[in-house]
Amino acid sequence: MDITWHLNDPPLNPHSWYSWSTEELLSIVRTSDNDQLTSVLLRAFAQGLSRRDGWQIDRLPPEFIPLMIAAAAMYKRGVAISNRPGQGRQGHYQVLLANHMAHRSDYLPPTKDCFFVLDQQVADLYPSWGAHADLLQLAAETEKNLDTVRHMASKIAKGHSKQQIVIVGGGMLTDSAAFAAHLLKRPFILVPTTLLAMVDACVGGKTGVNFPPYGKNQLGAFAFPETVVIFPQFLKTLPLRELRSGGAECLKHAFLTHQLSLIETTASFIQEERREDWAELLPQLLAVKAQIIEKDTGEQGVRAYLNLGHTLAHGLEALSQQRKGNDEGGIISHGEAVGIGLAFALQLSSSLGALSPATAHAYQTALERSGCLITHEQLAHYLGCSLADKDLWPSLLRILTHDKKNTSANGQLSWVILQHPGAEPARVVSLTASYVEEQWREILRRLNKDF
Fold it and tell me: What global pTM score does this model have?
């Protein structure tokens, strides 16, 4: 599969400008315990700046300009800077489905020419891959942050004789290591090892890390691999929880086709815990995202459809991480959160009349049958509180308001809903916080009754 991409830097044109002052920056630098870059980023989030708010930096002293350019480039994957015209980029890359790991030399450059970044678990499970690792990295949600990116960039920079970077791991590693490669302006190849990474994280050019307390993937860049090489054999050792986690993203892609046969087949693959036959299904699911990426690489229009289920999912992930701290096993996984988010999206789609009750029910049935929807009790465990806790919704709302994809004004929230029939498979709607809260309480009631 060949994917062609076109992108403007920054991806979005500003609707308004925020004027940074020298006094403001001096105050940040003098009073913060963080480094200067982190301090500026924290200030931008505290001010509630969106992707559509450009940064006015013309009146700042020259010594602050490089700092502000660096911060703006990664803030919510890039925002406009005053008097610096956007630049267009384009390119293409292949997604290759490899027959067998024994033939990996047919798909990857010679080992001696590459800097291999490997997930520690992959190295443990597959010694033949681990033997070539130049950098082993613990791939945990708690490690998906700017400090980890700096660490990896430092290690990669020291291996300057190996220009090509090969990143082997799941979505958490590919997101953060590709971001490090981008900062170093180094070419990279992605070898996804989880279902989630194969079907979603490695296709589309999004890289990034979390930025507590402001949520998931708030810092990053659009950076595109030279090649993506998928070895389905990695799925043989994938834990069931991770298989279902990736399965939720597979179902999201299937929902966007409105092809019930594909939706039901995908649900069956996950329900049956199939690991041998994904090479048959992956091309169909990958094609869904690839077609959208080619139409709208920079997320100015239809790419927003890929956020189906993700607004709520990212909120749940951020809240879980805040409340459970470094308890990796107690944090909701991305796919588990997406499963809840998809159920919520189906409910919104039906409630708003964009999807018939019968169609919504059929999709919901497939979601439940797949095993990708966690229980009321599991969600409560991951959030560290009773779902009846009066502070739960206000805490979640604060995170949702800061979601980088929230483009609504006047306190409203942006949501992707499915629509069928229609010219497009989905659309973005702006909803009041009170309406979203009402629907949130309804989804909790339904989870409590296991639908």
Answer: 0.93
